[in-house]
Structures are given as structure tokens and as C-alpha cells.
Amino acid sequence: MIAAGVLALALTACGDDGGGDGAAPTPTAETATSAEPTPSETPSATGPADPAAAEKEIRKNWATFFDPASSTAERQAVLENGELMGPVLEAFSGDERGQQVEARVTEVEFTSATGANVTYSLLMKGATVLPDSAGTAVEQDGTWKVSVKTLCGLVGLSGNASQLPGC
Q: Is the dihedral of CA 78, 80, 83, 86 positive or negative?
């Protein structure tokens, strides 16, 4: 199953910091930092009207998306185009190990009023398995969501992303 491949790769990940414009962000395996995340405090000319509230929502929604206790419907609600991404979510969430993965957002950097780069670590049973990964969040229909690019980047670690609709 795809999620098994993703997690197997995550446990031994050696990625690079891919992800230019239009490319899916590639989770990276860099040295973990011990710095505590701090919310954005000053508005950016290219960020949302309330960056602190947007960052708080991004962190909350990423936690929901990667929470093993979240249902598919809850994950779809915080995933860009979630209603269209059911097959990818099922593949990602259907594996036993996939149900043990969580994410911890460490940094949010707004790139526009509706986009942000997100640095996060994947954890399995509380242990970091993929530190300092690069992803993106998008504001869609008034909600900050995990981008399809991020999910497909994770699925792509298995080499099977092209076999799933949406990736």
C-alpha cells in the first residue's frame, strides 16, 4: 500500500529540498532543530490580513490532518480540494503505520495572502521519523488547508503518486 511505502521511506528518508514553483514540495530529512516555533507577529505585505490568526489556523489544521484519530471527512475538510482527494487520502490513511503518523509544524512563512511555506516534522508514535520537511498551506474558501502538493509530495516518496487521481 502507498502509505506503507511512504512510511517506510520516511523511516529511512534521505530527501532534498525540492519544490520550486509548480513542483510538489519534497519532504526533507535534515537535522532537527530544538527551537520552539513562534507565531508571526507582524503583518507582511505579501501575507494575510491577520498573520497570527492564519498561522494558528494552519498549525491547528495540519495537526488535524495528520492526527491518527481524525476521520477521512475531517482530513478532507482541511486538505486543499479535499472532496476530490478521497482516493489519495484513503491510500495515505489506510495503512496501519499511516494511522500512527502525526505532524508537528515548526515554522510558517507566508508567501502571499493565500499561501504559506510550512516546515514540519513527521512523528510516528511520538518519535521523529522525518524532521524539517517542506510543505505548503493554501487558503481555500476561507480556510487554511494542507496543500495537495504537500500530500502528493509525501505519497511521491513511495514512487506511486502518478497512479492515484489527484497527484
A: negative
What are the structural domains of the chain? Answer: 2-13+49-159 (3.10.450)
What is the per-residue pLDDT across 39-73, written as a single tens digit (0 to 9) for each? 444 444 579 999 999 999 999 999 999 998 898 89
Q: Which of 143, 151, 124 is nearest to 27 (CA)?
A: 151
The C-alpha atoms of residue 101 and residue 110 are separated, in whole angstroms, by: 25
pLDDT tens by residue, 99-148: 678 999 999 999 999 999 999 999 988 899 999 999 999 999 999 999 99
Give dist(CA 167, CA 164) in Å, integer: 6
